[in-house]
User: What shape does this take?
Amino acid sequence: MSADYTTAPVPHTDQHYLAMDLLRFTTAGSVDDGKSTLIGRLLYDSKAIFEDQLEAIERATEQRGEENLNLALLTDGLRAEREQGITIDVAYRYFATPRRKFIIADTPGHIQYTRNMVTGASTANLAIILIDARKGVIEQTRRHSIIASLLRIPHLVVCVNKMDLVDWSETRFNEIVAQFTEFASRLDVPDIKFIPISALHGDNVVDKSANLPWYQGGALLYTLETVYIGSDHNHVDARFPVQTVIRPNHDDFHDFRGFAGRVAGGVFKPGDEIVALPSGLTSRIKAIHGPGGELAEAFSPMSVVMTLADEIDLSRGDMITKANNPPHVSQDIEARLCWFSEKKLQPGGKYLIRHTTREARCVVKTVRYKIDVNTLHKAEGDLDIGMNDIGRVQLRTAVPLLCDSYERNRATGSFILVDEFTNATVGAGMILGSP
Assistant: This one.
């Protein structure tokens, strides 16, 4: 696996450009930095909210005695959030422009909700980090940026908000850019952009601001519409976890037996030689079916149905791959784990692990160390992993997992842990490799 998927040839088909039309991004920042207001402003200025929603926000703003339209109410849906003026849960919102569709995850700013940020950011292509222009880079800024780096989010947009409160100062903006750039030298984020904005007044959010003539870059929405995400997916390592077997049981499709799932990496084409794991049986792809009919190729993150030339045994949890580039097959997993549960991680504890479409039992063999999310330092003497903590662990699974490192493939390199008695998700992990 020596190829670098970031420079691999990217498929050029209509389906490819359709896949690139969707951008998933998350927002993060300290409490009161204006995350929810920014999302509300994006939705409001891009005409992505309904008239009745706007009327409800206007009424709520008036009842609260606030001067400006409180656009944060578009995302702060929980009663506790509205009363405290903070975001607790992950609020997902959807909108579209003529150039692209978007899924937004508005994540919490408080330290006790780190797990929510991990959840919201786990599938994101891009993270928006908000910084209050008056406060500059603070502890929460560093924590959220480090989490974005740990989650391998490839694009970071640092929005210096509330520029109206520092008289639109170019000097202040440059100071914050220098602060963040110095800190970011420790992060593993290949693409970082800086934008001065005022979410409350809409400056540089959807349209360029006349109050910031010294800023030569594009507005935030333009950046979101044009950021290139075609190389974010791994197009080298062929991975197709089987989700279910399609047997129509219909006279017109009497012999049809297809394998449905979402491509997690690489490119598949009819005629390709494949290997079914874990059995090791070989065949070739007979056809690939999408919602509109047969396809010439399939690649991440497309959901398709494949039929094979041979009748081989495949079921949910198995994987279709290629012989020259298989995933790791191992029962011993080294991982970075973010803990979600109020009940602490138990060394020797038994959990269910869900990885791609496979579920198995596992045991925590070793807790190696805890990670300080403010500094990325290893706290090797502290093995106490509680809620919102991130640590490195070794797991032993009852059956082998078909996996890659998270650095190489976010889809096949991630998993969740589930308490098999309560069915609660207690942790999310990023695979580092096999020991």
